[in-house]
User: What shape does this take?
Amino acid sequence: MTTPPTCPQCAMENIYPDGDNFVCADCGYEWPMLETAKPDADAADVVRDSNGNILADGDSVVLIKDLKVKGSSTTLKVGTKVKSIRLVGGDHEVDCKMDGGNFMLKACYLRKV
Assistant: This one.
């Protein structure tokens, strides 16, 4: 049989269960018996390519679609291999260097090699 935890408010051990909550008899603090699942911060930061493979810093990827570069007449061609990507936050998750310069790309247009 497991013993109830100590009170997170006052650290006393005079705890009793009340329905779905624990209650501290000393300070009156109540908290749920089952801890709510906290969202994993790492799970939100996982970046996946077009096939669902997890991307990491330093991976090599290939473009799966021709991409027009905004504000330029340059087009990144399908099949172009990009080495040593870097993952960053935001809408465009991948930062990379290519012959045409530095680009920020969306992972949905990339395939891991």
Summary: Residues 93 and 106 are 6 Å apart (CA to CA).
